[in-house]
Amino acid sequence: MAYRRVTSEDRVRIKDGLDAGLSNTQIADKLGFHRSTIGREICRNKGKGYRPRQAHRSAMGGNSQTQ
């Protein structure tokens, strides 16, 4: 598996997988990431559920709601 960053589209697909009841391993297999990458992404961006847009803003270094 080659290294690649989690994109905004990947984050939406992670959310979709979580909503469908998939495990981190199943989501990782579908997206082509290692399961620990998905686990870290979810853990890093949890709170009131996984929110992909907020997660992407955080990853890009901006925490403002207007970005």
Describe what this molecule looks like in 3D.
The model has no long low-confidence stretch (mean pLDDT 88). This protein has helices at 8-19, 24-31, 35-44, 52-59. It contains four helices and no strands. The longest helix is centred in the N-terminal third of the chain and has 12 residues, at 8-19. The chain is globular and about 30 Å long. It has one domain. It has 67 residues and is mainly alpha-helical. The relative contact order is 0.18. The termini are far apart.
The number of E-state strands comes to: 0
Main beta sheet, described?
none
Termini separation (Å)?
31 Å
Order of secondary-structure elements: HHHH
Query: What proportion of the residues form beta strands (DSSP E)?
Result: under 5%
The secondary structure category is mainly alpha
Averaged pLDDT, please?
88
Helix content: 55-70%
Shape from CA axes?
globular
The low-confidence runs, each spanning 5 or more residues with pLDDT under 50, are none
Total domain modules: 1
Radius of gyration: 12 Å
Number of helices: 4
SSE layout and pairing:
Layout: H1 8-19, H2 24-31, H3 35-44, H4 52-59
Task: Give a short synopsis of this structure.
With 67 residues, the protein is mainly alpha-helical. Helix content is 57%, strand content 0%.
Structural features:
single chain; 67 residues; mainly alpha; 57% helix; 0% strand
